[in-house]
User: Fold this.
Amino acid sequence: MSKASSSFKKITASREAVSGRFVANPSDAELVNFLNKSGLSELGKVFKRASTNTH
Amino acid sequence: MIWENSRRRLRAATLLIQHASIPGVSTTDKSSYYRSATYLICTVVEGMVYELARIVSMPDNIITTKSEYKDKLSIKSSTLGTSKDLVIAEKSIIDVRIKDDGITFGNLLVYLKNKKVLSEPEFKALNLIRKKRNTIHIQSLDKPDTGFTLSKIEEISKHARILGAKLDALSASP
Assistant:
């Protein structure tokens, strides 16, 4: 692995550690996962419920 | 429909929060992201309050009443020497339904508290959320529009979650 590639992976890992899995067009499930990892479990719960949209 | 549209707004709020978490975003800009997210979640809370009131008030959907006055007799001030004209009016008590003009978030909260759907602490917390939602009107602010945080977002979300559970319980009951 090149030094540049290694640095990039470290930066990417750092971004993910801080911001969760920060990707374009995340699914609802990915966003709920981000909320839970960020300590926003109440928002995660209501968003998860809204995503199931059974009514 | 309430859940489908709530999903859209909660998704938008979450995307804003995620953007705020990008390393290097300033505290001021984080608060700006959180401001928009807060208002989005407040609208979800208001929508759920409306839906709860709509279901609880079925079939007539009467939320409150108001007095209406129809003038019957007017006496000019000069006749009796008063400073203003005097009026005798016929008073009517009118039902106000949920879709009528003038029904507010505040009216709906009072209705749900009176119907025991909301406890007193829930009513007070939701009333604070109503006031927070109203700060979207910039002309009503008398201090800097700052101080939006994740902990406040989580507190508002807790009440959205509780209202959602009440909605589900009502929908499941026969």
About this structure: Residues 17 and 37 of chain A are 9 Å apart (CA to CA). Chain A is about 70% helix and 0% strand.
